[in-house]
C-alpha cells in the first residue's frame, strides 16, 4: 500500500472508538421542536433524517479520496436515543469495560445527563418493547432461553443490489412521483398511508443528496485553502464526485464507490440497523466500471486498488453502535457485519469471477482490517484458481474470507419461494444469513438456547438457576419410559418457547412498523416504492423472520449421552444423571468422564451421535418454519451464534454431555469444542447430515494450524475439503489458521498482536478484543493436525 | 471373510499418497526400527496402552473389571502388572478417561473398508484414496488382500505403505490390486540395518528391484533420522541403488519426530527404541538437495 493508504489505515487502527453525542443531540433537538400532532410516523422519521443530513458535521480527512463519516470523525460513534437511550451507568460501563469499550468524554456525559436522558427517558422503543412483553416472555428472556435483537437496535438485515450503479436518487424520486400519481384514493383504502410513506421517501432521498452536496461544498472550501497542488486537484475531484452522486448514476469507478458510500452512510445513520448494510456483490457491481476505466485509459489497476483501499478504511472507521446488557453479550464486537460477497454466480447463473474479484482479494489481503468482512461465494462454476487465492489469504492467519456455497444458497432461496433470478441475486450477509439482495427483509429476531430448554425439560419446567417455573410441566424425567418420550417432552418445551418468542416478535415488528418506520432504507429495497409501504411494514418483496438456533452440538451430545447411557446401554440410572447435573458433577467426576469420553459424539461421522443432531434439527425446524410473521412473510430457521454461545453457556447448568455449568455452548453447527476427534472430513460428513437447504444459513467453524497449510498438499487438501463439503450441500465453512502457541502468546502480550484477527463465529474479530473466555475457547478448539 | 487387527484409522491424511486419504494402520511388523514412530503397531495382537496421568483418583472401575487381577492403584493412579495382563481390553472398556486403552481391534476386511470408504467423496474430489500402513500391512497378507479387493470393488484408489521385509510372493499377489506402493528404505549398509532394525536388508532391496521391474508404481520413502542415515555415505549409496533400478522411483523424505518415544512409554513391555536428536529444517533441506544433486526426483514431507 502507498503512503496515503498506510497513514489512513494507521489512523483507523489507532483511533480509539468513542461514543459521540452529535446525532443524539440532533435527534433531541428535532423531536423537541416537532410538536406537530398531524405528522405521520414516516414523515416524522424522514424529517428527522433530513435534520441530521443538513446539520451533521461534515468530515474530510487529510489524504482521503472516499469521503463521509457517520460521526463527526473516524470512529466517533453516534447513538440512537429513539431506540435506546443509554443511562449514565451504561455510559460508565461503555467507557470502562475491558472489551469493546467506547470512550465517553466528560462533556458527552454531561450532555447525556442534562439534555439527552431527560428528554428520551420513557420515550424509547426499547422501553416500549419491554412494557409490551408478557411475563412469560420476560421470564424466558431473563432465564437466557432467547435473546431479542430489536430491543437496542432496529431491524436491518438487508443488503444492496446493483440499483444505485445504473440509476441515481433522482431516478428514485421519479419513481416515487409516478407511484404517488398512481395512487387511487377511490379504490385503495390504504392510499393515504401509502402517500405518507412515499412522500417520506422523497424527503429522505433529498436529504441524502443534500448530505452529498455538503461534502462537495466542504471539499471545494478545503481546495481553496490547500497549499499542495496535487491535494488541491484531488479535493476538486472529490467535490465533482460528490456533486454528481448519488443524485445521478456514477460514470466511473471513483463515483461508483463514493455513491455506494453515501448510500451506506444514510442507512447506518437513519437507524442503528442490525447487520449494518453492505454493498453485496461488489465485484459484480464494480466490474463494468473497472473494465471501462482500463479500456479508456482513464483508470489504472493501481488507481483502482488505491480507491478500493480507501473505501475499505471507511468501513473500518464505523464501529457497530454501542450495545449494552444481553445484546452486548450476544454480539460482543466492534464489527458491524458488512459482508462483501465475491465470486459466485451472476443473475443469469454464470461464473461471476472476474479480474475485479482478484483485485478485491488482493485488497482484502493487504488491508487486513476488521471491517468490512468478506466472503467468497463458491459455485461449482467458479474456477479452482479463485478458491486457491482465497486459501492463500487464509494462510496468512487472517480470518477472512469465509467460504459459502453459492449453488446451495440459490437452492435455499428457491425453496423459500423466490424466483430463480432473485435467488441468484441472493448471497450471504451478517454472519451466514441468506437473502435476496436489494429485495428482501430477512430479519434475525433473536438467538434461541436449545440446551437451556433441555435443562428446563429435565427439571419439569423449572429453571434451576432461579427456581422459577417457566416451561411446561412435562413430567419427572426419571419416569420417562424411553428416549422418545424424553425427546417428545423436549420438543413440546421447544415449541412452547418458540410460541412465546413469536408472540413477542409479533408485537415488536408492529412497534417498528407503527412508530419507527425507515423511509430512507425503504427507498433502496424493492418493492417498497412500488407498494408504497415501509421496509418495516412489509414493503420489501420478500419478508422473512429468523430465530437462530444455538448450541446444536451441545444439545445433540447431551441427548446422545442420555440415549446411550440411560436408555440403550443402561450404564447409569436417569435419576443419578439428574442428581449429578444438579450438583454440577460434584462428586461424580467418574460419571462426567464417561459422558465425555465413553459416549458417541457429534462431529465424528458417527451415525448414532449424528442422529441426535438430525432429530433436534427436525424438531426445531418444525417448531419454527412456516409460521407467519406480521409482514406477509414467514419464519425460518438458521443456526449461528455470533458470541451468544458464551452468554448462553453462562446461564445454562451442567449438561449430560459432560459440560459443566457456565461453560460455553458449542457454536453454530460446529461440534462441541474438542469433541471432534476424527479430523475435518469426519466433521464435514457429520455436519452435512443436516438438511442445510431448509435453513437460511448455518455456521461451521474449523480451526487449522498453520503447518497444515504450509505446503502445496495442505492447500490442495483444503480446496478439496471445501469443494467436497459443498458437494455434500454444506452451507458455509470458515477457517482459523493460527497456532495455539501464537494465541497464548497473544494473551500474554496483547500489544504485540493488535492485528491478529481470528474468526469467531461467522465473522472475524481482533483476538485481543475478545473476552478471556472466548480467547480460551479458541485456543482449546481441536486443532486438526495432519498425519 | 478374513479378519485382521487394526490399531488406527486416520482420516484426512495428506502425506500418505496423493490427495485426501484415509490411512488404515495394520498391527504387526517384522522390523524393530529404533526410531519407530508407531511402536504400538509392532506386535500382531491387541496391546494395552496406559496413560496413568489421565487416571482419576476416585475411580476404581478397572480394578474389578480385570479378570487377571493385574491392576492396582498407587498414589491415585493406575498400575498394570505387565506379566499378568493379557491385553483382553476389559479394563479399557470401563475406563472413563482413556487412561487405559487397547491398541488394536479385530475387524473384518469388509468393515474396515466400509469405514475407510466413508470419505469417498473427499477421495474423489482430491484424487485421494485409502492407504494401508502399519505396523507392516503385509504382515497380515490375506486380510490386506481382501481389503484391497474390497477397495477395488468400491472404486477406491489404494496405496500400501511397506517396509518390504516380506516374501516377494506376497508383494506379487497384491501388486495388481495396489495403485501405489510407498516403499520404505532405511539404511543401505547391511550390518547397520541389522543393528538398527533387527533385520537384514538384502530381501528388502531385492524386493523393490523386482517390484519396480514388474511395472508397479512405487514411491520410496526415507525417514531421515539424524546420525542414522543422513550421512554422505548412506545418501550416495541409496541414490546409486535407486538409480540402478529399472526406473528410479521418486523419493520422499520423511521428517523424524519423537512421537514414537512418547508412545512407547505407554506400552507395558517397556520402552522400545531410542531417542534421536531433533531434525532441523536446514538438515532436511541439506539431505534433500544432496539427493536431488544425485539425480533423483526428491520431495520432503512433514
List keywords for this structure.
heterodimer, A: 787 residues, alpha/beta, 5-stranded mixed beta sheet, 3-stranded parallel beta sheet, 32 helices, 16 strands, 50% helix, globular, B: 302 residues, TIM Barrel, Alpha-Beta Plaits, 9-stranded mixed beta sheet, 11 helices, 32% helix
Give your account of this protein's structure.
The complex is a heterodimer of chains A (787) and B (302). By secondary structure, chain A is α/β, with parallel strands linked by helices. In chain A, strands 3-4-5-14-13 form a five-stranded mixed sheet. In chain A, helix 2 packs across helix 3 (41-55). Chain A is globular. Chain A starts with a helix and ends in a 7-residue tail after the last helix. The model of chain A has no long low-confidence stretch (mean pLDDT 94). The mean pLDDT of chain B is 94. Chain B has 302 residues and is α/β, with parallel strands linked by helices. Chain B has two domains: 3-42 and 105-300, Aldolase class I (TIM Barrel, Alpha-Beta Barrel), CATH 3.20.20; 47-103, Alpha-Beta Plaits, CATH 3.30.70. In chain B, 32% of the residues lie in helices and 23% in strands. Chain B has a nine-stranded mixed sheet. Chain B has a two-stranded antiparallel ribbon with strand order 3-6. In chain B, strands 4-5 form a two-stranded antiparallel ribbon. Chain B has helices spanning 61-65, 90-94, 109-116, 120-126, 141-154, 168-174, 190-197, 202-213, 232-244, 259-264, 281-293; strands spanning 3-13, 21-26, 47-50, 71-74, 77-80, 100-103, 105-108, 129-134, 158-162, 180-184, 218-224, 251-255, 298-300. Chain B starts with a strand and ends with a strand. Chain B contains eleven helices and 13 strands. Classes of the chains: A alpha/beta (787), B alpha/beta (302). Chains A and B meet through helix 26, helix 29 and helix 30 of A and strand 1 and helix 4 of B.
Amino acid at each position: 500500500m502507498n503512503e496515503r493508504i498506510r497513514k489512513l489505515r494507521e489512523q483507523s487502527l489507532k483511533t480509539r472508538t468513542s461514543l459521540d453525542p452529535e446525532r443524539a443531540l440532533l435527534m433531541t433537538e428535532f423531536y423537541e421542536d416537532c410538536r406537530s400532532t398531524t405528522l405521520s410516523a414516516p414523515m416524522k422519521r424522514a424529517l428527522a433524517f433530513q435534520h441530521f443530513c443538513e446539520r451533521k458535521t461534515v468530515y474530510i480527512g487529510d489524504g482521503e479520496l472516499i469521503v463521509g463519516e457517520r460521526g463527526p470523525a473516524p470512529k466517533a460513534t453516534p447513538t440512537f436515543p429513539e431506540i435506546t437511550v443509554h443511562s449514565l451507568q451504561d455510559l460508565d460501563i461503555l467507557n470502562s469495560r475491558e472489551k469493546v469499550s467506547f470512550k465517553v468524554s466528560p462533556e458527552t456525559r454531561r450532555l447525556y445527563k442534562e439534555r439527552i436522558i431527560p428528554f428520551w427517558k420513557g420515550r424509547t422503543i426499547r422501553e416500549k418493547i419491554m412494557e409490551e412483553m408478557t411475563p412469560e416472555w420476560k421470564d424466558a428472556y431473563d432465564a437466557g432461553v432467547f435473546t431479542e435483537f430489536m430491543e437496542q437496535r432496529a431491524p436491518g438485515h438487508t443488503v444492496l443490489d446493483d440499483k444505485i450503479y445504473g440509476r441515481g436518487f433522482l431516478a428514485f424520486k421519479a419513481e416515487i412521483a409516478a407511484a404517488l400519481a398512481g395512487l387511487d384514493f377511490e379504490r385503495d383504502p390504504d392510499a393515504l398511508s401509502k402517500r405518507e410513506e412515499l412522500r417520506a421517501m422523497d424527503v429522505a432521498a433529498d436529504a441524502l443528496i443534500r448530505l452529498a452536496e455538503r461534502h462537495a461544498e466542504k471539499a471545494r472550501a478545503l481546495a481553496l485553502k490547500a497549499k499542495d497542488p496535487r491535494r488541491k486537484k484531488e479535493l476538486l475531484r472529490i467535490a465533482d464526485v460528490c456533486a454528481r452522486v448519488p443524485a445521478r448514476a456514477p460514470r466511473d469507478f471513483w463515483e461508483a464507490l463514493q455513491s455506494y458510500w453515501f448510500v451506506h452512510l444514510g442507512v447506518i445513520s437513519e437507524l442503528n440497523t442490525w447487520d449494518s448494510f453492505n454493498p453485496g456483490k461488489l465485484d459484480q457491481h464494480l466490474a463494468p466500471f473497472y473494465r471501462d476505466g482500463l479500456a479508456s485509459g482513464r483508470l489504472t489497476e493501481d488507481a483502482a486498488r488505491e480507491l478500493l483501499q480507501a473505501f475499505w478504511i471507511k468501513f473500518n472507521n464505523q464501529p457497530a453502535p454501542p450495545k449494552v446488557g444481553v445484546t452486548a453479550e450476544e454480539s460482543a464486537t466492534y464489527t458491524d457485519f458488512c459482508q462483501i460477497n465475491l465470486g459466485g454466480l451472476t443473475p443469469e447463473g454464470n461464473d461471476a469471477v472476474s479480474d475485479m474479484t482478484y483485485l478485491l482479494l488482493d485488497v482484502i489481503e493487504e488491508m487486513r482490517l476488521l471491517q468490512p468482512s468478506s466472503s467468497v461465494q463458491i459455485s461449482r462454476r467458479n474456477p479452482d484458481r479463485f478458491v486457491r487465492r482465497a486459501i492463500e489469504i487464509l494462510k496468512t492467519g487472517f480470518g477472512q474470507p469465509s467460504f459459502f456455497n453459492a449453488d446451495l444458497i440459490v437452492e435455499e432461496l428457491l425453496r423459500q419461494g423466490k424466483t430463480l433470478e432473485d435467488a441468484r441475486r441472493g448471497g450471504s450477509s451478517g454472519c451466514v444469513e441468506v437473502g435476496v439482495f436489494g429485495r428482501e427483509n430477512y430479519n434475525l429476531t433473536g438467538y434461541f438456547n436449545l440446551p437451556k430448554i433441555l435443562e428446563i425439560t429435565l427439571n419439569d419446567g423449572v429453571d434451576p438457576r432461579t427456581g422459577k417455573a417457566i416451561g411446561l410441566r412435562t413430567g419427572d424425567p426419571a419416569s420417562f419410559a424411553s428416549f422418545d418420550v424424553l425427546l417428545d417432552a423436549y420438543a413440546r418445551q421447544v415449541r412452547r418457547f418458540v410460541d412465546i418468542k413469536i408472540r413477542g416478535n409479533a408485537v415488536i415488528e408492529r412497534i417498528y412498523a407503527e412508530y419507527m418506520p425507515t423511509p430512507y432504507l425503504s427507498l433502496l429495497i424493492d418493492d417498497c416504492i412500488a407498494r408504497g409501504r415501509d421496509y418495516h411494514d412489509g414493503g420489501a418483496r420478500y419478508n422473512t423472520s429468523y430465530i437462530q438456533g444455538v448450541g446444536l452440538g451441545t444439545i445433540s451430545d447431551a441427548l446422545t449421552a442420555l440415549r446411550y447411557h440411560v436408555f440403550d446401554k443402561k450404564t447409569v440410572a436417569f435419576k443419578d444423571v439428574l442428581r449429578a447435573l444438579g450438583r454440577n458433577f460434584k462428586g461424580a467426576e467418574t460419571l462426567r468422564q464417561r459422558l465425555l469420553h465413553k459416549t458417541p459424539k457429534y462431529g465424528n461421522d458417527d451415525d448414532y451421535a449424528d442422529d441426535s443432531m438430525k432429530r433436534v434439527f427436525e424438531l426445531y425446524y418444525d417448531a419454527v418454519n412456516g409460521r407467519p410473521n406480521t409482514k406477509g412473510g414467514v419464519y425460518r430457521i438458521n443456526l449461528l451464534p455470533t458470541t451468544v454461545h458464551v452468554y448462553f453457556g453462562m446461564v445454562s447448568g451442567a449438561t449430560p454431555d459432560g459440560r459443566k455449568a457456565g461453560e460455553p455452548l458449542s457454536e453454530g453447527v460446529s461440534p462441541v469444542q474438542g469433541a471432534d476427534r476424527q479430523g475435518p472430513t469426519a466433521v464435514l460428513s457429520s455436519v452435512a447430515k443436516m438438511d442445510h437447504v431448509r435453513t437460511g444459513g448455518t455456521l461451521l467453524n474449523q480451526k487449522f494450524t498453520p503447518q497444515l497449510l504450509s505446503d502445496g498438499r495442505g492447500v490442495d487438501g483444503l480446496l478439496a475439503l471445501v469443494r467436497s463439503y459443498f458437494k455434500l450441500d454444506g452451507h458455509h465453512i470458515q477457517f482459523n489458521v493460527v497456532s495455539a502457541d501464537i494465541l497464548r502468546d497473544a494473551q500474554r502480550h496483547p500489544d504485540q498482536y493488535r492485528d491478529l484477527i481470528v474468526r469467531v463465529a461467522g465473522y472475524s474479530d481482533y483476538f485481543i478484543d475478545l473476552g478471556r473466555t472466548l480467547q480460551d475457547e479458541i485456543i482449546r478448539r481441536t486443532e486438526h493436525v495432519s498425519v | 471373510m478374513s479378519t485382521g487387527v487394526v490399531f488406527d484409522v486416520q482420516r484426512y491424511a495428506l502425506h500418505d499418497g496423493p490427495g485426501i486419504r484415509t490411512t488404515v494402520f495394520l498391527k504387526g511388523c517384522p522390523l524393530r526400527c529404533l526410531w519407530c514412530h508407531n511402536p504400538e503397531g509392532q506386535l500382531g495382537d491387541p496391546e494395552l496402552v496406559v496413560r496413568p496421568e489421565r487416571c482419576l483418583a476416585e475411580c476404581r472401575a478397572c480394578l474389578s473389571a480385570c479378570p487377571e487381577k493385574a491392576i492396582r492403584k498407587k498414589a491415585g493412579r493406575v498400575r498394570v502388572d505387565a506379566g499378568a495382563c493379557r491385553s483382553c481390553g476389559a479394563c479399557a472398556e470401563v475406563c472413563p478417561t482413556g487412561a487405559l486403552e487397547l491398541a488394536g481391534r479385530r475387524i473384518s476386511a469388509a468393515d474396515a473398508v466400509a469405514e475407510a470408504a466413508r470419505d469417498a467423496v473427499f477421495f474423489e474430489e482430491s484424487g485421494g484414496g485409502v492407504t494401508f500402513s502399519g505396523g507392516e500391512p503385509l504382515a497380515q497378507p490375506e486380510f490386506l488382500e481382501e481389503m484391497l479387493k474390497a477397495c477395488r470393488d468400491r472404486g477406491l484408489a489404494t496405496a500400501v505403505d511397506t517396509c518390504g521385509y516380506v516374501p516377494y510372493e506376497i508383494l506379487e499377489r497384491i501388486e495388481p490390486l495396489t495403485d501405489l506402493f510407498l516403499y520404505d528404505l532405511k539404511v543401505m549398509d547391511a550390518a547397520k540395518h541389522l543393528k538398527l532394525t533387527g533385520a537384514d536388508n538384502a530381501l528388502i532391496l531385492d524386493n523393490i528391484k523386482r517390484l519396480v521391474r514388474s511395472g508397479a508404481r512405487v514411491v520410496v520413502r526415507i525417514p531421515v533420522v539424524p546420525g542414522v542415515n543422513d550421512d554422505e555415505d548412506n545418501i550416495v549409496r541409496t541414490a546409486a541403488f535407486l538409480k540402478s533400478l529399472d526406473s528410479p522411483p521418486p523419493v520422499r523424505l520423511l521428517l523424524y519426530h519423537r512421537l514414537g518415544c512418547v508412545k512407547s512409554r505407554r506400552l507395558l513391555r517397556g520402552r522400545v527404541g531410542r531417542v534421536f536428536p531433533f531434525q532441523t529444517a536446514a538438515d532436511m533441506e541439506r539431505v534433500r538437495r544432496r539427493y536431488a544433486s544425485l539425480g533423483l526426483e526428491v520431495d520432503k514431507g512433514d
